Amino acid sequence: xxxxxxxxxxxxxxxxxxxxxxxxxxxxxxxxxxxxxxxxxxxxxxxxxxxxxxxxxxxxxxxxxxxxxxxxxxxxxxxxxxxxxxxxxxxxxxxxxxxxxxxxxxxxxxxxxxxxxxxxxxxxxxxxxxxxxxxxxxxxxxxxxxxxxxxxxxxxxxxxxxxxxxxxxxxxxxxxxxxxxxxxxxxxxxxxxxxxxxxxxxxxxxxxx
Length: 209
Known about the structure:
By secondary structure, the chain is an alpha+beta fold. It is built from 8 helices and 7 strands; from the N terminus they run H-E-H-E-E-H-H-H-H-H-E-E-H-E-E. The protein has a 4-stranded antiparallel beta sheet, with helices on one face. The protein has a 3-stranded antiparallel beta sheet with strand order 1-3-2.
């Protein structure tokens, strides 16, 4: 992913449709925003460009845009917290809540624009290609806390299965709560047990229908 958007690209973002995030600009400007993970090209004709959750968030934050780009650099759409040691030193408090809320709303808009039937109750193609980030965002947006340092919380991890993530939680109640959240967000979670350690976890896949 590249650096912060140029002044011209920022103007294009600011002039995006307030409801849909639809963009108008030159091919170079739009391609640059796609490269930075701030826009995506609709797969169906007329192949319009729309803001991603990161682009929506930057447009809303205005002057804080360069910092927001940096925070969303891992993956280009949103730096969702999967839980673990890497979360140390990350932003928190009201600023983080705004980021998460904006990213989730942007993701719902992406679902609406890219799912063939316009459905927002099941994951879209981007989520299927970024499983860990998508599941983590759904959990954090619902108020679940990721594991961070000595603080217990959820952890989302990739699995050998092509369309599934593993979700760990500190206790059975938290595990059930994560399952309910993911199911409500359009995922299919099931409780599994690791044969060697007997640790229980969720195996979750994005629902297709």
